[in-house]
């Protein structure tokens, strides 16, 4: 698994969470989703392809992320800091690991009616740390497959360097650039069963499509870094 993570930038740990744990976490998420308990991010906030154009537009109050989930219920924090997760992260990041409170630390919801498309991007754009060495942990609270918008990844892209001409102003990979096309053709679907956990590098390019099914997809996502990998002063990460 360590060799695969180094080569591809991700691994999947199958059935790492019990179905009962997933059901309990999903019930907590559904409770807060129904109440739209703040803080939340709406699909309209993203301005991604397919998102409602404003909060006042049809579907404008569709929640994309329930934010700050570790503070919402002790059960979430217990899951995020459990030994099964920590042991794997120590192998990837070092003996002392911390959980980021900025970005992620969320439940990702993908609504069947108003879900947007997320184009190819690296999550490192969200953080400002001394080293671009963070690992995200993505727990599937239900089955994730192509039709409901599972993650797509570009294996090995965490080790590549990209010129400014390959990215747009928002740091998304440009599919119209010839040098990007061979890389995009290497994409893989990360299809998950309930309780599967994806570990992926913050520099791994990934994307996701619309939810084309009748049910909302729920995923819990946290991001971790080594304790000695400090955030840059004055940034959101700090």
Give an overview of the whole structure.
This protein is of the alpha+beta class and 238 residues long. The protein is 21% helix and 23% strand. The protein has helices at residues 2-8, 19-35, 43-46, 74-80, 83-93, 181-184, and strands at residues 10-13, 40-42, 63-66, 97-99, 106-110, 118-121, 134-140, 151-153, 188-190, 197-201, 206-208, 217-226. It starts with a helix and ends in a 12-residue tail after the last strand. The mean pLDDT is 95.
Biggest beta sheet summary: 8 strands, antiparallel
> Which sequence of SSEs, written as H and E, runs from N to C?
HEHEHEHHEEEEEHEEEE
The shape is globular
- Give the low-confidence spans: none
Core attributes:
single chain; 238 residues; alpha+beta; 4-stranded antiparallel sheet; globular
């Amino acid at each position: 698994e360590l060799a695969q993570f180094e080569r591809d930038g991700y691994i999947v740990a199958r059935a790492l969470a019990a179905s009962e744990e997933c059901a309990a976490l999903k019930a907590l998420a559904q409770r807060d989703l129904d109440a739209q308990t703040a803080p939340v991010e709406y699909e309209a906030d993203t301005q991604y392809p397919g998102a409602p154009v404003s909060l006042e537009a049809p579907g404008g109050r569709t929640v994309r992320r329930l934010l700050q989930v570790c503070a919402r219920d002790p059960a979430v924090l217990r899951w995020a800091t459990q030994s099964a997760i920590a042991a794997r992260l120590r192998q990837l990041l070092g003996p002392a690991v911390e959980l980021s409170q900025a970005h992620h630390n969320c439940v990702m919801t993908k609504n069947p009616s108003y879900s947007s498309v997320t184009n190819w991007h690296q999550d490192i754009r969200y953080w400002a740390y001394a080293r671009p060495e963070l690992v995200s942990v993505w727990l599937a609270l239900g089955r994730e497959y192509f039709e409901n918008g599972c993650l797509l990844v570009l294996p090995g892209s965490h080790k590549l360097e990209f010129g400014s001409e390959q990215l747009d102003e928002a740091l998304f990979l440009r599919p119209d650039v010839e040098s990007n096309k061979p890389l995009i053709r290497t994409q893989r679907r990360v299809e998950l069963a309930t309780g599967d956990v994806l570990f992926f590098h913050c520099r791994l390019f990934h994307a996701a499509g619309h939810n084309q099914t009748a049910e909302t997809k729920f995923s819990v996502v946290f991001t971790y870094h080594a304790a000695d990998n400090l955030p840059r002063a004055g940034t959101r990460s700090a």
